[in-house]
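INTERNAL AUDIT FORM
Audit reference: QA-55
Scope: verify that the stored structure record matches its stored sequence.
Auditor: D.O.
Record contents follow.
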Amino acid sequence: MFRAYIRSLSKESRRLKYSQNKFFYLSLVFFTSIIFITYPSVVLAQDVYSIITSKAPQGGFVGVYFVDVDNGNTLVRYNEHSLFVPASLTKIFSTLVAWEVLGPDFRYTTTVYVPRGNISPIVRGDIVIKGNGDPSMSVDTLKANLKKFVIEGVREIEGNIVIDNSFFSNERWGIGWEWDYKNPSVDALILKENPNNFNPYDTTAVALNFGFHIKQILSSYGINVKGTVKIGKLTSDYREFIVIKSAPLKNLISVANKYSSNSYAEQILRTVGLRVYGFGSIYNSLKVMNDFYKKLFGEYYPFKLNDGSGLSTYNLATPYMITQVLVYAYKTHGGFNGFISTLASSGKEGTMEKRLGDITLYAKTGTLQKVSNIAGVMVTKTGRKVAFTIMVNNFIIPTYIAMQYQDEIIRYVWNNY
């Protein structure tokens, strides 16, 4: 488990042992793939390659990789080690690392602090709010929890609403994000209703927005807040008053993957950096993620991950890598009931709601300008479990045609293997 690796960062011998275990897993996967690259499935060999090559979207660059989850047989391979822009398939990488480091039962904590001593009817000082990046925090959740001030008989707050967002860096956008896209801002205290409304150069805007909503809610309860909203830090003069816990991380990862929430993915990855290195910066978060996949695939396997959501056009990954990550997740984290269940179920939900509804399939899609990808794990008509990735970059046709092309390949393998 990667959590073992995290715990061993300061202990050289345990780190080496972890590396050897991961290297053994990678070696098994790699050499198995080499064996079956030479001998692809006889049933699928000809017809599926005809579909891949003859129906490829005009101008597009295509990569395909299908593998039997149980026995490791390579079923389909085409440009499987070439680099593609993964778009939102990046969320598979970032959320799996979070699953490993934080655990599926991890819950975010947002805490409201008040001065020590009696606070009824007047809080003689500031109230301080500190959080560690909960992407699911909402105005309604704040309203429900801030009612405790009313219950405790508070009628006035003499000081300010102080927002302590010091767990995260002030880097609001990711590396390689497009400026003409509505990107989410990343902060230790953010409201899910409006993560995309802020100028990334205004590093205090997100946290101040959080504070202004708190002030408005308190005012709506008849509590007079004399001060203003400001950024600051918690001190020892304060005590916990309200502790707000999020849903388990598994539920939040499901939102990120099923509905391709860029905000959830970025907040979650930043929390990984916070957990491992004590500070949620871009550098720390990306280091944890890239180090993990280097442990799985080796120091020299080609890939580059620059954010958690896939908005970055600098991200690069191969169909082989993505597929093997899904195999790893399936075998290591509970099959269809674990991490794989956070992907969208075909024909039922999220980005797969209108695709391949008659197939048992959990998948993640990835779309940017002239990028359309899909990766997942399915059960074929004969009951075999197959992991796959199809990546199409640089095409000039409408995206829905690229998606139809992908679905035809998936359906062929489902029908014939």
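Auditor finding: record pair retrieved intact. Confidence is low (pLDDT under 50) at residues 8-43.
Action required: none
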